[in-house]
Amino acid sequence: MEQQPGARNDTARPRQPVLFLPHGGGPCFFMDWPDTWDHMAAYLRGVAATLPRRPDAIVVMSSHWETGVPTVTSGAHPPLIYDYSGFPPHTYQLRYPAPGSPRLAAQVCALLDGAGIPSAQDPGRGFDHGVFIPFLLAFPQADIPIVELSLQRDLNAALEIRTGAALQPLRAQNVLIVGTGMTYHNLHHLMGQNPQSNAVSREFDTWLTHAVESPPDIRTEALTQWTHAPGARICHPRPEHLLPLMFAAGAAGADRGVRDYSDTVMGKALSGFRFG
Q1: Environment class of residue 217 by beta-carbon count within 10 Å: exposed (0-12), middle (13-18) or buried (19+)?
Q2: What distance in Å separates the CA atoms of residue 103 and residue 148, rounded to the nearest whole number?
Q3: If exposure means fewest CB atoms within 10 Å of the residue's CB, which of 12, 90, 173, 243 is most exposed?
Q4: pTM, full prediction
Q5: In 3D, which of 10, 8, 22, 44 has the Cα closest to residue 184?
Q6: Do 6 and 57 meet the contact criterion of CB atoms below 8 Å apart?
Q7: Which parts of the chain register pLDDT below 70?
């Protein structure tokens, strides 16, 4: 019988923080790509050591799954989805056999429904590379149950903040809430190494860091209005890689955010954040 993740709310133990992790480019950490992704890989490998204790389960929102309503993976043994192309053959042989959690999936849906947010379950959906690639480094044992939550197809920042906020109670039940994406995601400029947008990426990253590290009410307003930030639409022509950060900020509640990772990759500024 499956153990209920987070079933006991032990107030004597600290609740889990909320994380926004950069997931890199495709299977970048498992290729010969020297001096490009090393700093990010080292950061991801150190994530587990920063947690107050081993999570009983993880709820993660990746930038690589969009649906009409928030949808959770509800299978007991989710497969992997190799949703990248043009990479070396060995990167399609990577394995991450982490279990799912049908009970946690149901609890996520119940919390969303209680907040007035329609939701759904998908028992056949697997983990996309926005989950298994960074988690291969952050949680390499693949023994923590994982439930993945989709982005909503209309890509609305306020709605993702609200979605995260509905799941706050899970943190006190030793469930780690994670968003994975990238704080810069203009592939045309990144892969083309367009130097004209390097300064723009730094300006946006500075704005984003200030927004995340602001008091929660100011943070929420700023992130909701992120399109008004300097260089916002150059850094994110489409915002799917940024919105998991909004989800994480919503799940943070009254906890302050801090930037705990800062890097420059192919000339572009990139960051990771932690709440609580």
Answers
A1: exposed
A2: 13
A3: 12
A4: 0.94
A5: 22
A6: yes
A7: 1-12, 191-194
